Amino acid sequence: MVKTIGILNILFGGLLLLIGSGCLIVAAPVVLGDQPLRFDPVTTQGFFDEIRRQRIEQLNAREQMAGTEEERAQLKQMRQRVASMPRQATDQLDFHKLNAGLVELNRYLRISLLSGPVLNLLMVIAGLGLVLRKNWARVLGLWTAGLKIFRQVALAAALVLLVIPHVCGSLGILLSIDLGREFIAQLLEQQQARTGQGMAPSDPKPSPQEVVSLLQRSGSVSAIFFLCLGSIYPVVALILLSRPGARAACAAGDGPDLEISSG
User: At what angle do helices 178-194 and 41-64 cross, to 10 degrees?
Assistant: First the structure.
């Protein structure tokens, strides 16, 4: 059992260490440098310009395929309304408020990406010692499993209570302008087209507040799901390594070293 936990520690810890180190290298300018995640006016304007272009093309295609004159007239009116919207979308946005919502996200990424590789490295070291049935490795494995569970709970709590509400607040500001609402409508129509459901021009569209609320709920559910998923192996390791059999096996594994040193 001890050797099995050691092998699993090496496999899981090594894989997570590689993934976490790769993410840390990619996100180094955000996590370690002076380039935090933020909404840039130029990039944001380009995003809304693309939304306008795609929305006009989408409405024009639907207008050409409309089955009745009434529907065609409604779609034409919608297309003309989108085309007449102010092109400078960034003038309608408060970038100070937008970027304030990303402060907690930057902190979350920094803590998550820096703490993960450290614990995963300790997990691999403990795994190597457990394969040799060393008691120090069992103790290290217990501490690492406990710290991993604590980290999962703390990060999930921060995600649900701080990060998701603040990020959704920034998203709500983006979606509150006219082109943001058109972005919502475009996504809904694309989703319904994939599922084979039609959508009439007069059908009510969800408000930005409703969309943000839905995203916040789904984000919180996802955070709790990944908390439970990520805690399964650390909990199992914590239970098995604390059993008397594991202590006895590791004590026996330390025996030859003790005899050699005494001789």
Answer: 50
